[in-house]
Design goal:
By secondary structure, the protein is of the alpha+beta class. The protein has 7 helices and 12 strands. The strands form 2 sheets. Strands 1-2-3-5-4 form a 5-stranded mixed barrel. Strands 7-8-9-11-10 form a 5-stranded mixed β-barrel. α2 runs parallel beside α4 and α3 runs antiparallel to α4. The radius of gyration is 31 Å and the shape is globular.
Length: 268
């Protein structure tokens, strides 16, 4: 900090009188200092001691408005970048590309594959086909080297000739709360393919929509979306209601379906 040389009191009196005679342009000097308000982190302490009450009013108002709005908005709006979301949307990727990506296993291992995600939300989940070469379970962090393919219209990572390496464990990304109207609409459903989602206020409007010819372990919810016992069968009965139902949003036999993973995914 650089200090100004001291000025005798009589000279100060003359100086203030001269300034007053010139129209009181003291405020103009402080207005110039206000332009430095963006550098509050650099000279906040200096102004408080040197400028006293004058700059405290000017700098305080400018800094609280500028830094508070800018920094607060930027930090709170930070999002996790999902590489899986790019893969799902073919953003920088093409079918049959060799892909290496990390994520967290979100579904039970069926013996032939599992679902994984690297963030919560739309597009961030995907099916990994390993053909029995991995014992990964929900919560395992995995590095997957695979080929990006479309199999029966399902985007997936074929790691059967690649690798799935378990590198640790981590919390499974939270289920994304989605309105059933979004999942039952083909125009908006694809964004949640492979994603762990949650529905609320679920009503079983058809316990076996494929009857009387077949029983594929599926059911209809809210007269608009199917459920599937792909991982776990909650055995929903006609007319039953549930406070919530979670599961992986899968795509099989030309239809999107909600597949609960285990009993904890179903809340009455």
């Amino acid at each position: 900090m650089i200090r100004s040389p001291s000025i005798p009191y009589p000279m100060l009196s003359s100086l203030f009188a001269l300034l007053a005679a010139c129209g009181g342009n003291v405020s103009g000097a402080d207005d110039g200092l206000a332009g430095d308000s963006g550098h509050a982190g650099d000279h906040g302490g200096t102004d408080a001691g040197t400028d006293g009450g004058t700059d405290a009013g000017t700098d305080g108002g400018a800094d609280s408005g500028t830094d508070g709005g800018t920094d607060g908005g930027t930090d709170s709006g930070a999002t996790v970048e999902s590489e899986i979301a790019k893969i799902q949307q073919y953003d920088g990727y093409a079918e049959n590309d060799a892909v290496t990506v990390s994520g967290i296993v979100t579904s039970p291992n069926t013996g032939s594959g599992f679902y994984m995600a690297d963030a919560p939300g739309a597009w961030a989940g995907i099916w990994v086909y390993h053909n029995g070469t991995s014992e990964a379970v929900p919560g395992d962090v995995v590095d997957v080297t695979a080929t990006l393919i479309e199999f029966n219209e399902l985007t997936e990572l074929d790691a059967s000739k690649g690798s799935v390496v378990i590198t640790g464990t981590a919390p499974v990304p939270a289920a994304d709360l989605v309105d059933i109207s979004v999942l039952s609409n083909p125009a908006t459903a694809e964004a949640f393919e492979g994603v762990l989602v949650e529905l609320t206020s679920v009503s079983i409007t058809d316990a076996n929509p494929d009857a009387p010819d077949d029983d594929f372990g599926e059911w209809e919810m809210n007269a608009s979306l199917r459920g599937d016992d792909y991982f776990y069968d909650p055995d929903p009965q006609q007319g039953a209601t549930y406070a919530s139902m979670k599961g992986i949003f899968i795509y099989t036999f030309g239809q999107y379906k909600l597949a609960p993973r285990f009993p904890a995914d179903v809340t009455e």
